[in-house]
Amino acid sequence: MSPDESYDKHAEVVTSVWWGLAAIHRKPGGTRRLRIRWFRLFGSLAGLAAVFWLMIALGLYFWFKQGRGFQDEKFGDVLSLPFHWPPFHSAEHDKKMGDYFYHAGDWNLQNRHYDEAFTDYRLAVMKTPDNLDARQKFAGFSLASNKNLETYATLLEEGIPYALADNPDYINNYFVDIIHAQVPDCSERIMGICQQYLAQNLTNSKVRTIFALNLANAYIDEGDFDKTDGIIKKYDLEKTLDGVVIKSRLLWERGDLHAAPRYLEKIAPTMDNNPFLLGLLSRFYRDLGDLDKSRFYTLMRAQKEPTDVGPQIELLYINAKSGTQTTMEHDIENIITNFRTNAEAMNMLANFATDQGDYNLALRLYQLAREQDETLRVAAKKSDFSVASFALLVAEAYLTDDKYKETIDFLDEIRVEKPDWLAQYHLLFDSVRAVADYNLGQETDAQLYVNNLIDSASTTSDTLLRVANRFISHNGASLAGRLLAAANHLDPHNQAILAQLIATNLQLGNSENMDKNIHSLLQTRRPPAELLYDAYRQLAGDHFIFVPEREKLLRELGQFLADAAKKHHMDDQS
Q: What is the DSSP letter of 268?
């Protein structure tokens, strides 16, 4: 036996397997043993994971950059994404991701991908709760999708701490939004929020003033006039325009009607005769029946704002009320001459024509709108003239003057012409036709149009209220009641709808849901005392004896009216 053969016989033989990740060791005597090369295995797995992630990161990078349009995306940021996942995430990365979702939401909103925009804004708020624009948009989407006013208000409220330092506009918009949305117990919510933050040491004076102004307004809504006065003095609100407006409102609401305009007359010169204050003075005096003074302050406002059509339209209403027809016709011609290319101004004038039942003026403005719209379209320019709205105002002007046959004739002319906008607005035009049909004795046709309006998925509560008010003005309370009930179903917290529904049902002697509706009205910001007194008086009679829990409802109404009378008496004494 040679030396080499002797060595091979007694040596351990190692054979690599599985691409070198393991080895079979054969010992002398034939014993075999498998050994994993752990270092090499883990190294290979790490290498494969790195290559695999590199491919994924490359795909994500191009998807972010090209597919989603984020040109500032960096490959290094995508490559380091795993280190930003829990538990390695950082505030910096959360902001980056929040900004990404926010911009994605804006892109989807612009391109009308509403479901995707809703999701993106929700994720943006989760990642960056201080992104107040994303929060407002998410809250708006949330309200539109589930109609939950409590969730809507809470989402906006949670953004207030992020706005205290330098974003007074967000806080102001919060109060405007929850009032406009008619969030339940709105006054109590506003008072709680304002008191909470005014108790803190707020460094931003504008923010502090906004809280104080809204607290003062809430106290007026609740009838706590002494507290309103205290807030105005404590925070020196009369140095601000809004504070002056609140002070004048306080005087008016307390019943000291002449003191309100006198106060404004004293303050206005110190504020350079602010046009808003002049407009408020005009409205106060118009409500008091002093049309000469109302005209005087409207003319002052018109001189301060010669390019604003508002004061000139206000003058038309004053002159119409005082019966100065010649002056009014002259003013109308001046407005048409100076503002004929201004869609908003012409629309305001058309609304005036409708309110006065001046269908000839409404027709003239309708023709002007058609001409302006066609001219702009031929020039390939965007038209702000909504011809449909001008046509609708013509039909309503005929109704205002009780010209029911002429209303139908005009609507038939439009139906024959078949303008491209008619399909979109046909329900609104049919609602005007329904009022005319009803007053011409064609009740079956009127009910058919009303049914179509109520059943349409595109009908809003505001549209139903508007049509109901038309019926009420033209002897159609029964159909108005149906429209108001449908509007209340769509928007149960809308105080205007609720109040009109109760008033209409009282007129009709309809006790359906009367207890529920009155309970809901009592929970609104400022229940109308005159309507609730009328409800109390009628419920106490024999007409509504079958209203559920009538005695309990009468006690609640009696307590409300007693409290209202007590507050009024205390204000008279003060």
A: G
